[in-house]
Amino acid sequence: MNESCPDEITPHTMKSKEIEFACVSIAVSFLVASLLLDIFYVFVLKVILSCREWRRKSFYQFIVFIGIFDCIQLTFHFLTGIMHLVFHFNSYIQNYSYYVVKAMGAVHIASWFPNSVATLLLAVDRFIAFVYPWLSPILFSKLLIKLHFLAMIVLFGFICAIMLSPYASFIYDPENFGWDCQQCKPLCKIFSRFDQLSTAICALLTFVIYLLIARRAFQLRGASSISRMSPHEVRLTVQMIVMIIFQLFIVAFWEFDMDVTKQKDMYANAISMTLWMLWNGCNPFIYLLFNKALRKKFVAHCRSLRSILGERIEKISQTDCKINEVFRNSAISSSRKVIFVSQLNNA
């Protein structure tokens, strides 16, 4: 073992009661919020996949692909909350969980890159579909979309392999409530900088592409309805612009937090982790806000789910009533038998 870079997690030290309470509160908040966001996101994806017409469109295919990796990261935010509570109440476990945390960190950070690339490809798809519609069936055919997805899955596996190797580690620090690369590993400094640059570049390029789409739509506002962007397309474009502006804000915060403050503080890390969780969890809310068709299907699914749950609850209550009736009848018959036997004995 390399003494300057030990394969262990920084031990959790006892702090004041106020800070200890803050640590537990943050962990529980993360656990609950990430679980609720994950469940809600999965339900929205189920609504999208329920429509056969949407499943055929490249836009919704990218939305679902992004959503899968968002849900993976939300699941790991949930596990982070559990892990922090485990480390908080049982620090003995920390020395034996390094490789489990290393594997979690590898999947956690690796799922970030396909997400960013898919968001950029979605912007390119929107741009080509609106500005060069004749190119869209060629560049985003069924086969090429599958190849795009396959390439991003390979990227996911490649990043996982790097982070699982002895040369890089993405480790959770229970002392400061945050994930970070182990800077003592030879590839971590390079990878950390690559992570910052790639995220910023993808977000900026995506934003520029959507601005070009908006500019083109503004130029064609007085044109015929054939060449003009439909109201549905306008809403989809506004939806993605809002999402990208929010992501740019988070990227700017991370750059300031990492390059300017350069502090490892529990509260700063908690804010950074919260923004990361919101990056993954805000998308379905934005989709529902700007997509009228999706919103209608979502409401219909909620009503259907409520009716199904109501029917099941009613069946359960009816079953309970029947069971209670059987027990009551059996109790009455038993009491009658007792009375009859006592009368015979008296006779």
Automatic annotation (TrEMBL):
Record Pfam families: 7TM_GPCR_Srt
Cellular compartments per GO CC: membrane
Transmembrane feature ranges: 24-48, 60-89, 109-135, 147-168, 196-213, 234-254, 266-290
Location in the cell: Membrane
Keyword Membrane recorded: yes
G-protein coupled receptors family 1 profile domain boundaries: 40-287
Keyword Membrane: yes
InterPro entries assigned: 7TM_GPCR_serpentine_rcpt_Srt, GPCR_Rhodpsn_7TM
Keywords assigned: Membrane, Transmembrane, Transmembrane helix
PROSITE patterns, sorted: G_PROTEIN_RECEP_F1_2 (PS50262)
The protein, known as: G-protein coupled receptors family 1 profile domain-containing protein
